[in-house]
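CORE FACILITY INTAKE
Project code: CF-77B
Contact: R.S. (postdoc)
Sample description: multi-component assembly, three entities in total
Requested service: structural model of the whole complex
Turnaround: standard
Below are the sequence entries exactly as provided by the requester. Do not edit them.
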Amino acid sequence: MPALLEVENLRKVYRAPGGKRGAHELVAVDLLSFQVQAGGSVAIVGESGSGKTTTARLIAGLESPTSGVIRVDGEARKPLPWPRGERAQLARQVQMVYQDPFTSLDPSQTIQACLDEVLRCHFTQDRKERGSRISELLGQCGLDDRHRHRRPRSLSGGERQRAAIARALAAGPQVLILDEAVSALDVSIQAQILNLLASLRDALGLTYVFISHDLGVVRQVSDECIVMHRGAAVESGVTENILSAPRAAYTRQLLDAIPRPGWAPKRRAADPASL
Amino acid sequence: MNTPAPSRPDGTAPEPPLLDLGGLRVELKIGGLWRTVVQGVSLSLEAAQAVGIVGESGSGKSVTVRSIARLLPRGARVGGEVRFGGEPIWAMSRARLRRFRARDLGIVYQDPRAHVNEMHTIGDFLAEGIRDQPAGERRERSIAALQMTGIHDADRRLMQYPHQLSGGLLQRVMIAAAILPGPRLLLADEPTTALDVTTQSEVMAILGEQRHARRLAMVFITHDLDLAAAVTDTIAVMYAGTIVETGPSATMHERARHPYTAGLLAARPQPTRVASLYTIPGRPIAAYESGPGCVFASRCAYAQPRCLEARPTPRQLGDHLVSCHRAEELQGALHQALERA
Amino acid sequence: MALTARLPPAPALLRAEEPRVKADMIAVAAGCVCVALLIVAIFAPLLAPFRPDTINAAAINQGPSAAHLLGTDSLGRDILSRALYGARLSLLGPALVTVLSTTLGTALAIAGTWVGGAFDRVAARFMDILFAFPGLLFAVLAVVAFGAGLVAPVLALSVAYTPYIARVIRAAAVHERQLPYLETCQILGYSSWRTAGYHLLRNVRLLIVAQATLAFGYSLLDLAGLSFIGLGVQPPAAEWGLMVSEGDSSLLNGYPYESLAAGAAIVITVVAFNVLGERLTAQSLSRQ
């Protein structure tokens, strides 16, 4: 079965002007390749500077790759800005949920208006149909009528993130990118949202690309994972296998650094380059 | 933790704890209204001890720690006692307060970039904290402090500006700066939350070393129970502006006595296995949103009518101090739930 | 799992409704004055006891009396009526300047922020050139070129005020631009027009209103000043700047009523609009 999302030899290089000897180059993503089946969930794990966020932005189309291809449902993805005729179709392929729900929602819009706008721009439904679709979306994300007419600032962090998820779902995407979508939430709320995401995936057959630095979260939500370090994938495969029996030294380093009962913090082996 | 220190054999009065919070209550003006954010926090700390304050949003943990340094917004209403070595902090004169903050207290914040002057070099920044030392010594001591935090080319770093350092490096500089004047108490407000997990491990290792070398007491705020358990001696769990449980760090993960603590432990995702995560229904509330009964009653799976009516007082249960009406009854149930978690 | 046993009914999970931020009383007072002035301008014919151009040779330069509450001017016209009718022309000019400069300034700011690149740079340079000209100078040049009246100064001042408004709006727009919600609009497939013209604009609208209010006050002063030196509205029209000028001969003769009344009207209006504008600006910036 062909994969729903295919990334082939993705490469992104940033050029910074200046420096003593001409342009400076930063390779944010270096020849990354992976595939995700429909309904699957892949996690991209890494620390800061690993290239995971850049990868997410490339898949979403916010930036264009220096080289390499991204294919959704067999079609190559285009970077923004999208041509007018194709906007709706491209939006319906990939959507994204950000880390901070407060700044990723329009502060001047009520949730109702926000969801209504998505529906109006992508589907031809009359007002009544939109209204019931909004109710459906809210219900799926654990919100109800009380939240409908509120603006983001009168919602709690968890509620905002649910609204952000509802908005992403309103466009009817095939692939949902979650860029550290639970990192900014309290522990107890994080658990709620993770459970929500798992149940949505089951119910709607969504495909997830989950960006995270938290291996515990990664374990909960993904079937497969890719560990990235400085732009390159150091290990990839079934999440369970990677986290229980990592082969790459970096993965082991990551796992060792996670606080858990019996754990004690340790200094890294002296690595002047990392200082 | 709140039991009085044993009296000395020669009969003199016991030394007061290094830090003593008694029924701390803080009201802040939020949105034009006075709101209670901390209600009745009691804690004491001896020299070289570390306590971790664990809580979610609205728990009041940051405000509690800022009350120790008297860094609350102007006009904040503070009740209860906050004492350092027996001396009430809120009664200190401005001069004494300045000396207290400069010499006895060190603070490390979550975001180093927000707490450093971008126009000053690292060297200037470090030297500022030890201005009372002779000039020649200041540079040497700064270099020594940086080296102790694992920065090898300290000479070069002294001349650099904050924007030239990465987040992890800058946080190490902040720790060096906080410890350099030789404080007796370190307040660390989520110092590693913004760092990568590998950097976090290193920074906490360095902090631990320094603490033991200098017999430095620490109040460590975090939302990560496991991290707190690893780097502190005691953990105090805060919810809605009050401490719901206090106990030794080493065993908290298996012997939590309060339903909230147990809920937090059960809610954290583990890399070792997949499980449908236990979710505490609702959302964390702030002190002013809590009712007359137990602050956690509205979200507690074990709540009974009396939990909504009367606020439980902290009770000793084994080596834990718990604020729960049903603490004794629930011991078994919580233990089982945690084993399965 | 034991912890899920017997969940009590969840309470209202919603954060308590945020209490309304206490209304800024000074802003409200200023706002009321502004509204009152607009009412006066619109309903002047109903409020004024006399017509503004009714000459009464028998009642020249009279002080305040029962018949003429603010006295009469050197041609026997009722000052109160002229002041009330004067509100029309005195406020019309600034209203036009405000609308034109705000629209142009906002459009340039938002377009510049959104499109960026060469367009933004060229627009910025153009604004810099405009900054070099004092508004009043521009207006005087326009009058010299196109004749006195309301039209030339209004157009000139609109152009002169545009960069000031554009600069402030642009700063706010740049701040908003980096927030993820605008990126999300793009991922959702919204056009640039919708993203910049609806989402971005809505989030700086409070600042736009604030800047417009300030522009109103300043342009009133500039236009009154032009009328004062004879380059704006021409006699026998009732306009406050003109009244201050016409009253100066009476002033020298010991009858300050016309100049005072018109001057007071200008001061009250400008202060009210400025205070309102500043308060609104502060509010919008504190919300960022």
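Facility notes:
- Chain B is about 35% helix and 20% strand.
- Chain B touches chain A through 48 residues (CB under 8 Å).
Invoice: internal transfer
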